[in-house]
Amino acid sequence: MTTESYANDAAAAATHQRWLPCLGGILMNLALGTFYAISLFLLPLEREFGWTRDQTSWVTTIGIVMIASTYIFAGMLYDKKGPRVVAVIGGIFFSGGFLLASYINSLTAFYLTLGLCLGIGNGFGFVIPTSVASKWFPDKRGLIIGLMIGSYGAGSGIFGPLASGLIDELGWRGVFQLYALIFFFMTMLAAYLLKNPPDGYEPPRRDVTRSRAGVRNVVDVPASQMVRTPTFQLLWIAYCLGTTAGTMVISQLAPFAQSAGHSATVAALAITVGAIGNASGRIFSGWMSDRAGRLNTLRVLLLVSVVAMPALYLLREQVIPFYILVGTVYYCYGTQLSVYASTSADFYGTKNIGFNYGLLFAAWGVAGVFGPFLGGRVYVATGEYRLAFFIGSAAALAALLVLAFARDPHRNEAAAAGPGPG
């Protein structure tokens, strides 16, 4: 049997195993998503050490900065070394951060463990599922990436409420140690399952024929060339502006709900509603983008965000509209985290997907700093959130206008081949 035949046999066998890397990506993101639930530990830490909310809230900012910055380096390492080594590094930093946090006695140690370590672990771990999914599922890239990234939001919804109940029994130090053990096993199993497809791999023909998105031959564009293209620059600006609105609401949701006169119970349920909206946007909009096109999906959801942001503020005192609009804003935010990842793979190929999307993902990092700053600063200056929500709406509108000029670089090829994800 020739070398080519062996390669073809290996590729054919791999088509039956491509759901195992998908499972690995879900496990990884379920663990990493607990970063969004760190706020649940702030109150017991503040009570024990006398820290203020201004001091403890910095841990989220530190984490976001580390996620966005290490994602780029992790993506470059993934492109050179493959997924497993990067996933192992991410899992060790993330689970190790929880373990070390169980021994902290100072604010500096708090920042270094739950901010720095968890942020680095997220940066290394989060790059792998998206990149691996892009290579295994070119026929349904939007759906599978959405499913994997959606599990990140689900992680906070599972391990956050679980932590609330366990803190009373085990104490926050005990919960950190338990989570360190759970997340170590989850991330190591994920690292074992996450692998790239073999050379010559093609998705099952039956799946390609059923997918309206189809599979296009996309040129792998190096980062040095990609960053000079107008399309990438427009995507980066739109990504940053569009997610600023979401990060502002996410960072301020609980105090915003309480400032609107809602009880702590309503505010807590709003976080759950937001998590459902966030995960739904990542999954269903990913699926939608396979059919309606990546840019079209982003434009529609940005338009919805433009309307939903001021509506959320104006109808904040009415419980049912409040919940509906919170879910809508989070849905629009989650859509962008999913669809931009698929767009990057479609436009610039998968050979350099780790580093390429890392550069685009840096736009989210900027939004992750600016959005919370915007919400907090406006409230301190004016005593209300009105201006923050209208600025968030304006940012989404600006993102929509910028994205109107973005074009799929392969649209002529796609038009000749039939409907595609452009």
Describe the protein in words.
The protein has about 425 residues and is mainly alpha-helical. The protein folds into two domains: about 180 residues, Up-down Bundle (Growth Hormone, Chain: A); about 180 residues, MFS general substrate transporter like domains (Growth Hormone, Chain: A, Up-down Bundle). The chain is built from 17 helices and no strands. The N terminus and C terminus are likely disordered.
Q: In the CATH hierarchy, what is the architecture of the largest domain at level 2?
A: Up-down Bundle
Shape: globular
Q: What would CATH call the class of the largest domain?
A: Mainly Alpha
Q: Tell me the number of helical segments per DSSP (H or I, 4 or more residues long).
A: 17
SSE order, one letter for each helix or strand: HHHHHHHHHHHHHHHHH
Number of strands: 0
Question: Using only CA atoms, what is the Rg?
Answer: 21 Å
Main β-sheet, in a few words?
Answer: none
Strand content: under 5%
Kindly, what is the distance between the CA atoms of the first and last residues, rounded to a whole number of angstroms? 40 Å
The CATH homologous superfamily name of the largest domain equals MFS general substrate transporter like domains
The third-level CATH topology of the largest domain is: Growth Hormone, Chain: A
Q: Low-confidence spans: pLDDT under 50, at least 5 residues?
A: 1-7, 207-214, 413-422
- Tally the structural domains: 2
Topology:
Layout: H1 3-14, H2 19-32, H3 42-49, H4 53-56, H5 58-81, H6 83-101, H7 107-136, H8 141-193, H9 205-210, H10 223-226, H11 230-259, H12 264-292, H13 294-314, H14 319-348, H15 353-382, H16 386-403, H17 411-417
Helix pairs in contact: 2-7, 2-8, 5-6, 5-7, 5-15, 6-7, 6-8, 7-8, 8-12, 8-14, 11-12, 11-14, 11-15, 11-16, 12-13, 12-14, 13-14, 13-16, 14-15, 15-16
